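Here is the promised in-class demo. Please do not try to memorize the tokens; focus on the logic of going from shape to residues.
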């Protein structure tokens, strides 16, 4: 009887050891998975920030060129830049009104897809 009890205790100890090892492995897996997803999200964020910065520089140069061009057409550079400002204000208003379908929904979909892919 005592022999069976010792075997049972030994088996319970082995099972407990396997359970601890499984839990440790599972925790390590979750840590690796979270770090991988975080790295991917950070790389996307950095790429988007860099592209947005370069796009803003290109747009600024393009808007200055458009202002100079319209100024030469109007015969007054101030009117050219005023027209460019009006165009920018109009675009800003349209983007603000349509921000949910144009900006928020696609960005949320992209983030959710990248996080749970």
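The designed amino acids, position by position:
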């Amino acid at each position: 009887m005592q022999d069976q009890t010792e075997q049972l205790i030994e088996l319970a100890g082995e099972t407990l050891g396997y359970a601890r090892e499984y839990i440790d492995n599972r925790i390590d897996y979750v840590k690796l998975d979270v770090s991988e997803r975080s790295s991917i999200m950070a790389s996307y964020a950095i790429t988007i920030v860099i592209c947005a910065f370069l796009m803003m520089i290109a747009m600024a140069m393009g808007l200055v060129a458009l202002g100079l061009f319209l100024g030469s057409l109007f015969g007054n550079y101030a009117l050219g830049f005023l027209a460019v400002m009006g165009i920018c204000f109009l675009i800003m208003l349209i983007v603000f009104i349509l921000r949910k379908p144009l900006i928020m929904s696609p960005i949320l979909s992209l983030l959710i897809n990248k996080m749970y892919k």
